[in-house]
Amino acid sequence: MIIEWNPERPKKRATELIMRTMEEGGIIAYPTDTHYGIGCDLFNIKSIRRLYAMKRLDAKRALSIICRDMKDVSTYAVLSDFSFDIVKWYLPGPFTFVLKARKIIPKLLMTDRKEVGVRIPAHPVPVGIAGLCGRPVINTSARIAGEEVITDPRVIEKAFGEGVSLIVDGGILVSEPSTVVRLADDEVELLRQGKGALDDRISG
Predict the structure, then answer these.
(1) 47: CATH
(2) How many domains is the chain partitioned into structurally?
Protein backbone atom coordinates (compact mmCIF):
# COMPACT_ATOMS: atom_id res chain seq x y z
CA MET A 1 0.00 0.00 0.00
CA ILE A 2 1.29 3.44 -0.96
CA ILE A 3 0.28 6.38 1.21
CA GLU A 4 1.07 10.08 1.49
CA TRP A 5 2.30 11.36 4.84
CA ASN A 6 3.74 14.71 5.81
CA PRO A 7 4.98 14.66 9.43
CA GLU A 8 4.89 18.45 9.50
CA ARG A 9 1.15 18.36 8.71
CA PRO A 10 0.24 14.76 9.52
CA LYS A 11 -3.17 13.32 8.74
CA LYS A 12 -4.51 11.15 11.53
CA ARG A 13 -5.36 8.08 9.43
CA ALA A 14 -1.93 7.89 7.76
CA THR A 15 -0.15 8.48 11.06
CA GLU A 16 -2.11 5.73 12.82
CA LEU A 17 -1.46 3.37 9.90
CA ILE A 18 2.32 3.91 10.13
CA MET A 19 2.30 3.43 13.90
CA ARG A 20 0.22 0.27 13.70
CA THR A 21 2.38 -1.17 10.91
CA MET A 22 5.56 -0.65 12.92
CA GLU A 23 4.02 -1.99 16.15
CA GLU A 24 2.82 -5.13 14.36
CA GLY A 25 6.25 -5.87 12.91
CA GLY A 26 5.62 -4.60 9.40
CA ILE A 27 8.30 -3.36 7.02
CA ILE A 28 7.99 0.18 5.64
CA ALA A 29 9.59 1.92 2.66
CA TYR A 30 10.14 5.66 2.92
CA PRO A 31 11.93 8.54 1.15
CA THR A 32 15.16 9.96 2.61
CA ASP A 33 17.59 12.69 1.56
CA THR A 34 19.39 10.06 -0.54
CA HIS A 35 17.51 6.97 -1.77
CA TYR A 36 14.31 5.28 -0.70
CA GLY A 37 14.95 3.34 2.47
CA ILE A 38 13.32 0.21 3.82
CA GLY A 39 13.09 -0.40 7.53
CA CYS A 40 11.32 -1.80 10.54
CA ASP A 41 11.32 -1.62 14.33
CA LEU A 42 14.84 -1.71 15.76
CA PHE A 43 13.96 -4.40 18.30
CA ASN A 44 11.79 -6.70 16.17
CA ILE A 45 14.29 -9.44 15.32
CA LYS A 46 11.77 -11.41 13.23
CA SER A 47 11.13 -8.36 11.06
CA ILE A 48 14.86 -7.71 10.70
CA ARG A 49 15.41 -11.31 9.56
CA ARG A 50 12.57 -10.95 7.05
CA LEU A 51 14.21 -7.77 5.78
CA TYR A 52 17.50 -9.60 5.24
CA ALA A 53 15.74 -12.44 3.40
CA MET A 54 13.64 -10.09 1.27
CA LYS A 55 16.70 -8.16 0.12
CA ARG A 56 18.82 -11.36 -0.17
CA LEU A 57 21.44 -9.81 2.08
CA ASP A 58 24.40 -11.63 3.53
CA ALA A 59 23.75 -12.21 7.24
CA LYS A 60 27.08 -10.51 8.03
CA ARG A 61 25.99 -7.29 6.32
CA ALA A 62 25.27 -4.76 9.06
CA LEU A 63 22.32 -2.40 8.66
CA SER A 64 22.25 1.22 9.80
CA ILE A 65 19.68 2.94 11.99
CA ILE A 66 17.83 6.23 11.57
CA CYS A 67 17.81 8.39 14.69
CA ARG A 68 15.63 11.36 15.57
CA ASP A 69 18.36 13.52 17.07
CA MET A 70 21.75 13.56 18.77
CA LYS A 71 20.24 12.27 22.01
CA ASP A 72 19.06 9.19 20.12
CA VAL A 73 22.52 8.74 18.58
CA SER A 74 24.21 8.86 22.00
CA THR A 75 21.69 6.36 23.43
CA TYR A 76 22.50 3.72 20.82
CA ALA A 77 26.12 4.50 19.92
CA VAL A 78 29.21 5.67 21.79
CA LEU A 79 30.09 9.30 21.10
CA SER A 80 33.47 10.62 22.22
CA ASP A 81 34.10 14.38 22.22
CA PHE A 82 35.86 13.90 18.88
CA SER A 83 33.03 12.00 17.20
CA PHE A 84 30.28 14.10 18.81
CA ASP A 85 31.59 17.33 17.25
CA ILE A 86 31.81 15.75 13.79
CA VAL A 87 28.44 14.01 13.90
CA LYS A 88 26.71 17.13 15.22
CA TRP A 89 28.28 19.23 12.44
CA TYR A 90 27.23 16.97 9.56
CA LEU A 91 23.84 15.70 10.73
CA PRO A 92 21.08 16.01 9.69
CA GLY A 93 22.48 15.24 6.25
CA PRO A 94 23.38 12.54 3.71
CA PHE A 95 25.92 10.79 5.94
CA THR A 96 26.13 7.46 7.75
CA PHE A 97 28.55 7.53 10.68
CA VAL A 98 29.94 4.21 11.92
CA LEU A 99 30.40 4.28 15.69
CA LYS A 100 30.89 1.82 18.53
CA ALA A 101 27.48 0.29 19.28
CA ARG A 102 26.03 0.30 22.76
CA LYS A 103 24.81 -3.02 24.17
CA ILE A 104 21.19 -2.01 23.58
CA ILE A 105 21.70 -2.54 19.82
CA PRO A 106 20.71 -6.05 18.63
CA LYS A 107 23.86 -8.04 17.78
CA LEU A 108 22.35 -8.82 14.38
CA LEU A 109 22.87 -5.18 13.40
CA MET A 110 26.45 -4.84 14.59
CA THR A 111 29.57 -5.26 12.50
CA ASP A 112 32.27 -7.73 13.56
CA ARG A 113 33.84 -4.78 15.39
CA LYS A 114 30.61 -4.24 17.37
CA GLU A 115 29.91 -1.01 15.52
CA VAL A 116 26.73 0.44 14.05
CA GLY A 117 25.97 2.95 11.32
CA VAL A 118 23.80 5.89 12.38
CA ARG A 119 21.89 8.39 10.26
CA ILE A 120 19.79 11.49 10.82
CA PRO A 121 18.55 12.23 7.29
CA ALA A 122 17.74 15.78 6.26
CA HIS A 123 14.23 14.61 5.37
CA PRO A 124 11.18 14.85 7.64
CA VAL A 125 9.64 11.45 6.81
CA PRO A 126 12.21 8.94 8.15
CA VAL A 127 12.94 11.13 11.18
CA GLY A 128 9.19 11.44 11.72
CA ILE A 129 8.72 7.66 11.58
CA ALA A 130 11.45 7.23 14.20
CA GLY A 131 9.60 9.82 16.27
CA LEU A 132 6.36 7.84 16.06
CA CYS A 133 8.21 4.70 17.17
CA GLY A 134 10.00 6.49 19.98
CA ARG A 135 13.28 4.86 18.94
CA PRO A 136 15.48 4.44 15.85
CA VAL A 137 14.27 2.68 12.72
CA ILE A 138 16.29 0.11 10.77
CA ASN A 139 17.53 1.56 7.48
CA THR A 140 18.66 -0.09 4.26
CA SER A 141 18.32 0.97 0.62
CA ALA A 142 15.29 -0.09 -1.42
CA ARG A 143 16.90 -2.72 -3.61
CA ILE A 144 17.62 -6.41 -3.95
CA ALA A 145 21.27 -7.21 -3.22
CA GLY A 146 23.36 -6.80 -6.37
CA GLU A 147 20.68 -4.81 -8.21
CA GLU A 148 20.09 -1.10 -8.73
CA VAL A 149 18.36 1.03 -6.13
CA ILE A 150 14.65 1.44 -6.89
CA THR A 151 13.69 5.09 -7.33
CA ASP A 152 9.90 4.81 -7.85
CA PRO A 153 7.52 3.86 -5.00
CA ARG A 154 5.29 1.94 -7.41
CA VAL A 155 8.23 -0.15 -8.57
CA ILE A 156 9.15 -0.79 -4.91
CA GLU A 157 5.61 -2.09 -4.36
CA LYS A 158 5.89 -4.37 -7.38
CA ALA A 159 9.41 -5.61 -6.57
CA PHE A 160 8.82 -6.50 -2.91
CA GLY A 161 5.12 -7.30 -2.99
CA GLU A 162 3.62 -8.13 0.39
CA GLY A 163 7.11 -8.10 1.94
CA VAL A 164 6.74 -4.32 2.32
CA SER A 165 3.58 -3.51 4.26
CA LEU A 166 3.55 0.21 3.61
CA ILE A 167 5.27 2.72 1.33
CA VAL A 168 5.35 6.45 2.07
CA ASP A 169 5.25 8.20 -1.29
CA GLY A 170 8.04 10.72 -1.80
CA GLY A 171 7.85 10.83 -5.59
CA ILE A 172 10.65 9.52 -7.79
CA LEU A 173 14.02 9.86 -6.05
CA VAL A 174 17.18 9.81 -8.14
CA SER A 175 20.16 10.43 -5.90
CA GLU A 176 23.49 9.16 -4.63
CA PRO A 177 23.79 6.97 -1.52
CA SER A 178 24.90 8.45 1.78
CA THR A 179 28.59 9.04 2.45
CA VAL A 180 29.79 6.47 5.00
CA VAL A 181 32.42 7.60 7.53
CA ARG A 182 33.89 5.49 10.33
CA LEU A 183 34.71 7.41 13.52
CA ALA A 184 34.90 4.55 16.01
CA ASP A 185 38.60 4.98 16.94
CA ASP A 186 38.59 8.79 16.96
CA GLU A 187 39.97 8.77 13.44
CA VAL A 188 38.17 9.69 10.25
CA GLU A 189 37.98 6.78 7.80
CA LEU A 190 36.00 7.34 4.61
CA LEU A 191 34.35 4.01 3.76
CA ARG A 192 32.16 5.22 0.89
CA GLN A 193 31.95 8.53 -0.91
CA GLY A 194 28.34 9.38 -1.60
CA LYS A 195 26.15 12.45 -1.69
CA GLY A 196 27.63 14.05 1.44
CA ALA A 197 30.89 16.00 1.06
CA LEU A 198 33.38 16.21 3.92
CA ASP A 199 35.00 19.61 4.31
CA ASP A 200 38.65 20.45 4.94
CA ARG A 201 38.41 20.28 8.72
CA ILE A 202 38.36 16.47 8.62
CA SER A 203 39.00 15.41 5.02
CA GLY A 204 42.24 17.29 4.66
Answers:
(1) 3.90.870.10
(2) 1
Buried b (16+ CB within 10 A) or exposed e, 34-46: bbbbbbbbbebee
pLDDT in tens, 170-204: 999 988 899 999 998 889 999 999 999 988 767 54
Amino acid at 93: G
Domain that holds residue 191: 2-203
Q: Does the pTM exceed 0.90? A: yes
Count of CB atoms within 10 A of residue 139's CB? Answer: 25
CB 108 within 8 A of CB 45: yes
Beta strands in the chain (DSSP E): 2-3, 28-31, 36-39, 64-66, 95-100, 115-119, 137-141, 166-168, 179-182, 189-192
